[in-house]
Amino acid sequence: MDALIFPTLAENAEAMAHYMRDQFSFCGVKKPQRAQLEYPYLQASLTLSIPALIHEIFRNYHQTEREYHYYAIDLAQKNIQRFSRAELIELLPLLAEKSWWDSTDAWRKVYSTWGLAHPAELEQIFEWFYQHENYWYRRVAIILQLGFKEQTDTALLTRAILADLTTDEFFIQKAIGWALRDYSKVAPDWVKDFMQQHSLSKLALREGSKYI
Fold first, then answer.
1. pTM confidence score
2. In this predicted model, what pLDDT tens digit does every residue of 65-103 receive, in sequence order?
């Protein structure tokens, strides 16, 4: 498969970098255009062998510009049905590289998609992230079940939240509120009871209560 090369659009790159607090360089390709450029490559990736695909994911993730990191994650998401647990384990170290909310949340979707399709493996996936020393991994544990609705394992959700209940980290507390808010769409009484029984931060409480 040919390598995808994003064009450099300087008029967009500076603003995109500034939005991410100037932590990453950007080519300046906004999401709609990036999706168009990626499409044929994502389709072609379905014909790659798994080792070649993993190599392509790592190669792109080790590029400088942020668009390549997004593309690497999109490659994983596109091929998620082809992955076994072994490939998910192999990709885990990438979550610790160039970490910020955008990449963490995109990786979360990869693991969530696989976990929803393999419910018997969900707890094992959860354990990879739960109580990890890196809080970005723990954020994944907290929001792992976004969109699971009635299939949400509340025992896992409870464990993830309680492990970081008093963690003084914005992105952790935001994740707690997000997870509770999402689950409140299908189980508002459960979320109400949870919030009454535990001392949540103001941020988590505010976010979790939005739909109640």
1. 0.96
2. 999 999 999 999 999 999 999 999 999 999 999 999 999
> Vertex 98, ends 124 and 65: CA angle to 5°?
130
Write out pLDDT tens, residues 182-208.
999 999 999 999 999 999 999 999 999
**What's the CA gap between 95 and 109, in Å, rounded?**
12
Interhelix angle 188-197/154-163, nearest 10 degrees: 30
Residue 65: strand, helix, or coil: strand
- 115 neighbors 83 (Cβ within 8 angstroms): no
Q: Enter the DSSP assignment of 25.
A: B
User: In this structure, which topology does domain 120-212 adopt according to CATH?
Assistant: 1.25.40
How far is CA 5 from its chain centroid? 24
User: In this structure, how many other beta carbons lie within 10 angstroms of the beta carbon of residue 204?
Assistant: 26
Hey, what are 172's tokens?
Answer: 């952790």
Cα separation, 31 vs 116, in Å, equals 26
